[in-house]
Design a protein that fits this description.
single chain, 539 residues, alpha/beta, Rossmann fold, five-stranded mixed sheet, 21 strands
Length: 539
């Protein structure tokens, strides 16, 4: 849309600014209804200003916008995106906008808001309307169109050609695979195009969760933007006389800079709206991205305890160091996890692995003399275990079959169930310390709760394949790390008075050092049935 030729230089400058600067345009050209129902100028709040800055930074860097927004309730993200696209479609020619909401009520609400934008827009900035109905505005002379739809039909938007797409409350969409294969194909991978997914979280394993996790990767086309609840000025309540924050509330105030009014609003919301269920509040009004995906009985692990463990930095240096190894299956990563008592010391994943490479990695760890026991999943780890034993590491290696009998067979169906329940108890005992990483926390929260089996009445965990159903590729990979973590709970490991150490010297000799002395093993020269000798000699 070009400026009329009769505009003065000053008016032309104002028009140019309105066309190019969305916050300026929104303040002077758009009206919204506030939470009291009053029609007011649309002035960005803190969340909207932050969102605008992040989106504009990506647009300037890449020429296009690909964003996933994770936020709390009623923070104005849908309003911001609707205004952004109204601005583009009314002031730039050839712009087709499509907004897809999760239910028809939301679709009507969004389009009513867009209608209010148009009705209250100053006449000089308002294009003529060629087509207007309950779901579509087509602007005269611009070739631009603003449409909305509901995600109930898998075919919605399939034949459209779009420049700007907004998915609203994506975590609650049905038919996500079909929708992604339909409407999403209408947005070309070209400069000037925009795709924005936004939603409050709705648990783990759905498309929105997978998109949000993928957007954390530096090589992803999408970026994940998180909006915390406490950025909303209205989320506060006057404190009563004598109000005293709890220890947990005081820590939150220190961590996030919350006021007494904000923490009291939080307390009231937890008690009055969510019946005292902290996990439910954290999912609807998260402080962090990880909190947004907290579940309740849907997960074996407590999201609240995992959140606390991420913030704990106290080591447990006196405990034995245990290594859990989950070898790669087809299409999977190999995962290793080091746990020392109450602390997960570190974790690693490898996406290109074979048995001999894994032998070298584990042997190198044992050579450092700190790992006192290594538990390896024998499902695909037989070769690795056998080779490590041949090399003299057998004392610090134990194969674990997830389907083997549990130590407490009267309680657990198998070893896998027992290990995972031990990891749950580890968090509940308090003092747990895990890496402050969204991926690791998300993998833990993806594990469903134990259920009693029919017949024996023991506790069981669904198989890994069952848990993976409905998950995206990103989330499936996270389960490898949770298996490696669970393996560190396979059997009790006592702290040794001295750490065992295995060192390899000039071939063909391997020396194994222990508190009892040095045992020399000959790796070559003593053949027996084509394999390595089982003869040991004290040196």
């Amino acid at each position: 849309m070009g400026a009329p030729p009769e505009l003065s230089t000053q008016r032309l400058g104002t028009f140019t600014r309105l066309r190019d600067e969305l916050p300026f345009y929104s303040r002077y050209c758009l009206k919204i209804r506030d939470k009291a129902g009053q029609l007011v100028p649309f002035i960005f709040n803190r969340a909207q200003s932050y969102l605008h800055a992040r989106i504009e930074a990506q647009r300037k860097k890449t020429g296009r916008v690909r964003v996933v927004i994770v936020k709390g309730r009623q923070q104005g993200c849908s309003t911001y995106i609707s205004a952004r696209y109204f601005h583009r479609s009314t002031l730039h020619s050839g712009t087709n906008v499509f907004i897809l909401a999760h239910i028809s009520d939301s679709t009507r609400h969004i389009f009513k808001m867009v209608g209010a934008f148009y009705d209250n827009c100053p006449e000089p900035m308002k294009p003529s309307v060629k087509v207007s109905n309950q779901r579509n505005l087509e602007f005269e002379g611009l070739g631009s169109e603003y449409s909305v739809g509901t995600a109930g039909s898998a075919d919605v938007g399939r034949s459209m050609t779009l420049q700007l797409f907004h998915g609203s409350e994506v975590a609650f969409w049905p038919n996500t695979d079909e929708l992604m294969g339909g409407v999403m194909q209408g947005v070309a991978d070209l400069p000037g195009t925009e795709i924005v997914f936004e939603s409050t979280a709705n648990g783990l394993g759905n498309m929105f969760h997978s998109l949000a996790i993928a957007g954390l990767r530096p090589d992803s086309d999408f970026i994940t933007i998180f909006i915390p609840w406490f950025w909303q000025d209205e989320y506060k309540s006057p404190t009563p006389t004598g109000f005293c924050p709890t220890e947990e509330e005081s820590k939150l105030m220190d961590t996030y800079g919350l006021s007494s009014e904000q923490i009291y609003w939080r307390r009231k919301k937890i008690n009055d709206t969510f019946g005292g269920k902290l996990w439910a509040f954290m999912r609807e009004y998260p402080c962090t991205l990880q909190e947004a995906f907290i579940t309740s009985g849907e997960s074996l692990h407590s999201g609240e305890l995992i959140a606390k463990a991420r913030q704990n930095t106290v080591p447990d240096n006196a405990a034995p160091l245990i290594l859990g190894v989950d070898p790669a299956r087809s299409g999977d990563d190999t995962a290793l996890c080091w746990r020392r008592g109450r602390q997960v010391v570190k974790k690693r994943e490898y996406n290109d692995m074979d048995e001999m490479k894994l032998v070298g990695i584990v042997a190198a760890e044992l050579d450092k003399g700190q790992v006192q026991m290594t538990f390896i999943d024998v499902g695909l780890g037989y070769g690795t275990i056998d080779r490590l034993r041949e090399l003299g590491y057998g004392r610090w290696i134990r194969g674990v079959h997830f389907g083997e009998s549990a130590l407490e067979a009267e309680i657990y169906l198998n070893k896998r169930t027992e290990m995972y329940d031990e990891s749950r108890k580890w968090f509940e005992d308090g003092g747990a310390n895990i890496p402050d990483e969204d991926g690791f926390a998300t993998g833990l929260l993806s594990i469903p709760p134990l259920k009693q089996t029919v017949g024996r009445g023991v506790l069981a965990l669904p198989s890994k394949d069952e848990i993976k159903k409905g998950m995206g590729a990103e989330q499936k990979q996270l389960l490898n790390q949770t298996d490696a973590f669970a393996l560190t709970f396979a059997y009790p490991v006592a702290a040794s008075a001295a750490h065992n150490r295995v060192t390899r010297v000039d071939a063909p000799v391997i020396r194994v050092k222990s508190p009892l002395g040095t045992i020399k093993r000959f790796a070559k020269g003593h053949k027996s049935d084509g394999g390595y000798s089982t003869t040991f000699k004290l040196s």
